[in-house]
Amino acid sequence: MNRLTHLDENGAARMVDVSAKPETERTATAEGRIRMRTDALEAMLAGDVPKGDALATARIAGIMAAKKTGELIPLCHPLGLESVTIEFERESDAIRVTAKAGLIGRTGVEMEAMTAASVALLTLYDMGKALDRGMVIEGVRLLAKSGGKSGEWRAAD
User: Fold this and answer.
1) What is the C-alpha to C-alpha distance for residues 140 and 122, in angstroms, rounded to an integer?
2) 102-136 pLDDT tens trace
3) Distance in angstroms (rounded) separating the CA atoms of residues 108 and 150
4) Quick one: DSSP state of residue 82?
5) Which residues are catalytic?
6) Quick one: which of 31, 43, 16 has its CA closest to 145?
7) Who contacts 129 (Cβ-Cβ below 8 Å, separation ≥6)?
8) Which residues is 94 bridged to in the sheet?
9) Which residues are annotated as a binding site?
């Protein structure tokens, strides 16, 4: 029997063999926030930071990171993603980043969505640090996933 674990029979780390799993449509959505001073927030939303359009750059960075998750996270499968979206929403003193990844495959895309959100947030920090070095990235988490043996899952709030 093929156990879905990252440990082999000797307790050594390995990449899980998913070859026997059926292909299903799989999606995952993750989010996080970056809090900052009002002046930095306004400049970032207006595309007026010294390094250029922070939101556009963060969107591209998040998409690129999702595609490279298998290279960044040990034992993650390299996946041919079919879709990645990055959305931004203003909150009172923050920008909320929502990342969604999807494919038809044998393994889920939760790590890809979380990586996309994380790198988009880090890119916003990098783009805006000249305006506010005290920005805080917080709350990176999985919001929802679908597909595979475990089916649907949603965060509890």
Assistant:
1) 11
2) 999 888 899 999 999 999 999 999 999 999 999 99
3) 10
4) S
5) 126
6) 31
7) 135
8) 35, 91
9) 75-77, 111-112
31 within 8 A of 99, measured Cβ to Cβ: yes
**The residue to which tokens 């010294």 are assigned:** 50
Instruction: Report d(CA 34, CA 140) in Å as an integer.
Output: 10
Three-class SS of residue 126?
helix
d(CA 84, CA 100): 6
Q: How far is CA 63 from CA 16, 101, 112, in A?
A: 25, 9, 9
The CA distance from 76 to 114, in Å, is: 13
The three-class DSSP label of residue 114 is helix
Whole-prediction pTM value?
Answer: 0.89
Q: What is the pLDDT of residues 74-87, one digit of tens each?
A: 888 888 999 999 99
Vertex 17 angle, CA 83 and 102, to 5°: 10
Question: Is the pLDDT assigned to residue 150 strictly greater than 60?
Answer: yes
What confidence score (pLDDT) does residue 124 get? Answer: 98
